[in-house]
């Protein structure tokens, strides 16, 4: 009864009707999802080839790590063992490289740099604790001169009569018997920042009636126009008046970038070159006020002016951070003035190699260690490229070039690069090397610029009457940090390559590898869609929303709309308003959110479903790397893990036999296997000869189904009959009988 009750209570499985179509679809699905791995196809080649070193370093062992034959790893002379040995050492070395890059990047960064930069940014803007900045009061030409005399002079010349003498800097007058001792110019009440050198102003001007045209309706009243700034519209004409003060004459003369020693800056309206009309403010506050007043009176800034850039360099003596500040005043053609303050800060030991104790010494030692590590990594990548080239060409590149044509020699580097970069992680290696050497280039160029700049000599640097061209060095270091950030993220992303050795992460790695190419193509399509919408939003909202005032801004804003969303403006739906902009916005949401983003997710899900079937973990199979580590450990101790150790220690003549001593069927099977192996080798490796088979059999077999080719042949067979030779089913080529079959 209990058995019957259990039988009745059991849940019945759903019956599946296995029709012919269902079976065929399932079989087709399995065959498409699981393809033969190259490691399986080349298994016999790995065992039979004599040149086992040719396969060492091949990328297919990383691509198909899970398909490596673990039984062959126990043989220390096998291809699998040699490759896993190289892969193990590569993994250990890369972990060291990753740790070195991370430590180096961490050593360069400091919270003090950020705080020093923010402090200088707020100081020159005149911001209070609530975020209200006095520099924002500059709206026109009058408020500009008011800020220059009422705000800049007090900020740049802090009244402090008790300044201590911390440096011996003097201005020598040869014709007098005394020197003027200079003290460091502290700015701010905290006395933590010193002004390095003088403050330099540079004006950028445009030409009259260039890049613009006055309407014919008003040309008789206003014959002149002044366009926005661009390099081809820049004015280089001196504009001093007849009675301008003599000491200001140089301020009205154009000077190139070598004279100004300044870099171009990017403003809100245009990009301004480093050249222009330059003037240095005096070291005395009263003299600086008088100069600014004279510049105002003699119209140093007029209708042709488009930007005034004030460059200031300070040193925070408490944290040893140099800050370079650019205060940019832009004068638009419509009469408005826009003020912008930009500050970059760097630690002082980045400008010159320092052997002082502390963070400076650690940073310099890390730089040397990192250079040595990347030199080894460069050699390693070059060796991998050589191995890829050798397998692709079948011989060394030098020997191949000697016999190749001129056109083949020209395209050979491109062919080699294509073969090398077919494995995606090799692209990551190239990016890592390029980023590191670019970073080193920026660091070295900074050292060279410091040593070759007279104004930054040890006996001149910090002099209050000499301009300090720190901006060039700060820019190089800033570029170097940007490249270093790309280097760090690329190094950490490449770590996924080595995670494929663990079954827990292997599926994730395979998904990333297969998604990369498909998502890259999808991103290219997405760029065109974004650009089209950027143009549409620029036309529709460019006149009422600053975020869409240019195509570049629209292009960037649309990316963030996907994440942060967008607040709909109520003015769009006011009576009398055109509904074109809301329609474009709705079309953007419908296409991006409901179509393209779902395609993105579909690509990932499709790749996951395919990779999950192809890379299903076999619980019974051992991890190849664990097997290698165990084998290598016992090999170091002098032990072998091969089950039949007698084969490992036997002589080569004891492990071989002549082919003619084997039965005919065995000989024939051996020849067929060799031919199949040679065919596979020809398809995968150039120049690899495993079986030099030239079938030169002279006997011709005639089967029972063979028909005479013509009437003449038929009549000859009737008049002169010849007995056909029997079919040689088990015959082997005569020139192969003398070969030996070896087992290694």
Automatic annotation (TrEMBL):
The chain crosses the membrane at residues 91-108, 364-386, 430-450, 483-507, 519-539, 580-605. It is a multi-pass membrane protein. It comes from Polarella glacialis (Dinoflagellate). GO terms for cellular component: membrane. This is Polycystin cation channel PKD1/PKD2 domain-containing protein. Belongs to the polycystin family. Keywords: Membrane, Transmembrane, Transmembrane helix. InterPro entries: PKD1_2_channel, Polycystin, Polycystin_dom. Residues 136-347 form the Polycystin domain. The keyword Membrane applies. It is found in: Membrane. Residues 421-609 form the Polycystin cation channel PKD1/PKD2 domain.
